[in-house]
Sequence to fold (284 residues):
Amino acid sequence: MSNIYTDFVRVHARPDDQINEVEAQWIAWMLLGRNGSYWVPVSIRRGPQGRYADIQYGSGKSPDIVSFCSDYVGSHYSTIWGRHYDEGGSEDVIWQDDVNDGPRRFCRYGFDEVRVVTADGQPPMVPETSWQRREGAWCVEVAGSYRTGNDRSADVGPCATPTTDVPDPDPADLPFPTPTTPTTNGDELTGIDPSWLAALTARDSTATSIEYRWRGRLVHSASFQAVERYYETGPSWHHRAADDWDNCLDPEFLRFTGATDLFAPAEVYERDRQDWESATWYRR
Fold:
């Protein structure tokens, strides 16, 4: 297998229009084209009052989104947003309106609560905050954000459609709800803010399990366990991701939705910009 890309596409209706269920299905099939979704389960959702349609699929063998943007965005639909994950990288990239020539950036995601389980039952060795005991974990409410990758590939074949059966999840993943399908072998967090949270996965950390939540929803988890991942064996951090549009803190996306009160600190976005400018290997 090659070119496994996960795409999360949000198509917005014109201000005086709405997208019904049938049209959302049509958009999905237009994006899938004749090749279907390449090893990524297809998910179709509609926003409140049909203001937008969300499509998850794998574009590795389906370049039809290029024609969709040029033929329909700006005429039939007001705008289109996309979050893209390349299996050769480790972070989601976000774009708007033009999948080929539009601006692209690393995508940042938000959380407002952290829950940690430690090996010794004591609070995490992070002096910057006061931890509270709740439901068997040490918890803290903190406005934060990170970058990571959301690879949603699964054993659905190279030509998946909305009717393709998705394999039953591993029992260990059942407590991990997500709006679409979860990433069960995810990437670690990059550029986490506030930065002191990075100490939770440091070599001398007593943490064995970490959960990041957004408005009550579990969006990222990390557990220290004996797993084989790529060329690594033995104990290591195992990540699972379920980021979605609800916890997307990209600054332009927040301006578009009017949720500017959710902005991360300006210096965080500046670091993201610098990282993007230096990551020429990722841009395509």
Q: What stands out?
A: The mean pLDDT is 90. Residues 120 and 206 are 7 Å apart (CA to CA). The longest helix spans residues 266-278. DSSP finds four helices and 13 strands in the chain.
